[in-house]
Design goal:
Blueprint: E1 2-6, E2 15-19, E3 29-38, H1 41-48, E4 73-81, E5 93-96, E6 99-100, E7 115-116, E8 128-132, E9 136-138, H2 144-147, H3 151-163, E10 171-174, H4 180-192, E11 196-201, H5 207-213, E12 217-220, H6 226-234, E13 238-243, H7 247-256, E14 257-265, H8 278-283, E15 287-290, H9 296-307, E16 315-320, H10 324-331, E17 339-343
Parallel strand pairs: 10-11, 10-13, 11-12, 13-14, 14-15, 16-17
Antiparallel strand pairs: 1-2, 3-4, 3-8, 3-17, 4-5, 5-9, 6-7
């Protein structure tokens, strides 16, 4: 089969198209013919060494072993099964829960042995992938492309919203609202949990699209008076922030939060380090949450909401598998709206 492998830390030249044997499923695994694989920041940051290099590069203490096939947002068809898996699974169209873990129910994502597909296991930048049968769930939508955009971004967004316990009619500011996680934060917070969403984007040409996704107000982070604009449109301080940007908007987020407000971060595309005046946190009684991925139960709840039409896929562009380099370069450009897909 054809696959794209990361051969080491570096730029996109470290991505190599190879011909390798189709993997054989172990006893409890299935073989999935990959139909679509969405791109995430995580595989790019892993390649670039943004998480660290050597033993710090992956989710496990030993780090990433190269070469590694990246890709964690996967949809496809089961074409073969291991000895302990019911043959009736062959032919099923599925999406893959993106990590393994021995953690107990509700704590799978914080288990020490959590291992990620595309980092600790070979992933979806390939024509076939093997994965545990119990982590393959029915596609929520008829389209492979549309079903593939939710696994990592959607689970991350769902867990962020769920973690801060958003209540109906509360105000929530979403940064990076045009991106994969951000656009889903907008939808989940507004259409599933009933919140009033202030979406922060770069280009206000996306305003109507963001409002279709559920945003009540759309503002640009390029504004010279962003804090004032946020407070004006909301009629005062906001209840919560869902952030994927990091340093670039951190001070603004804390400034506009109400006393007793909640700040949840799950990304740092705008800077991984920041200055923090602790007085702001304790004098305003702000609760800070770190968040990434989520639980199996949350994944199932998310798939149900997708199937019910409450959450819709947002796709910016698709690329063939052999254009993975170009796809990752495009992914890092500003001004996109939604997910980027590789189609084997």
């Amino acid at each position: 089969m054809k696959a794209v492998q990361v051969t080491g830390y570096g730029n996109v030249d470290m991505l190599e198209i190879v011909d390798i044997p189709i993997p054989n499923p172990k006893q409890n695994e299935v073989l999935v013919k990959v139909k679509a694989c969405a791109i995430n920041n995580t595989e790019i940051w892993m390649r670039e060494g943004a998480y660290g290099t050597g033993s710090k590069s992956g989710w496990r203490p030993e780090g990433v072993n190269f070469p590694r096939t990246p890709g964690s947002d996967i949809s496809g068809t089961i074409v073969n099964v291991g000895a302990l898996v019911e043959e009736s699974m062959i032919g099923k169209d599925v999406v893959l829960f993106p990590f393994t873990s021995s953690g107990k129910e509700g704590e799978e994502h914080i288990s020490e042995d959590m291992s990620f597909i595309g980092s600790e296991y070979d992933g979806g930048y390939a024509e076939y992938v093997v994965w545990p049968a119990d982590l393959c769930l029915d596609m929520p939508l008829p389209s492979y492309e549309e079903s593939a955009v939710f696994s990592v971004s959607g689970l991350t967004a769902w867990h962020m919203v769920n973690q801060i316990q958003i209540r109906p009619c509360e105000s929530v500011m979403v940064t990076g609202a045009n991106g994969g996680v951000g656009s889903l934060n907008v939808q989940i917070a507004s259409k599933v949990f009933g919140a009033k969403v202030i979406a922060i984007v770069g280009d206000l040409n996306d305003e109507e699209k963001m409002k279709e996704l559920g945003a009540t107000h759309v503002l640009s982070y390029k504004s010279e008076n962003l804090s004032k604009e946020i407070l004006n449109v909301n009629g005062g301080p906001i209840d919560s922030v869902l952030d994927v940007v990091g340093d670039a908007l951190f001070s603004t987020c804390l400034q506009v939060l109400k006393k007793g407000g909640k700040f949840c971060i799950s990304g740092s595309a705008g800077g991984q380090k920041t200055e923090l005046d602790f007085r702001t946190v304790y004098l305003k009684h702000i609760t800070l949450y770190g968040s990434v991925l989520g639980t199996r139960e949350e994944f199932k709840d998310m798939l149900q909401s997708i199937a019910e039409g409450k959450i819709k896929p947002v796709i910016d562009k698709t690329f063939p598998l052999d254009k993975a380099k170009e796809a990752q370069v495009y992914f890092k450009q500003k001004g996109k709206l939604g997910k980027i897909l590789l189609l084997p």
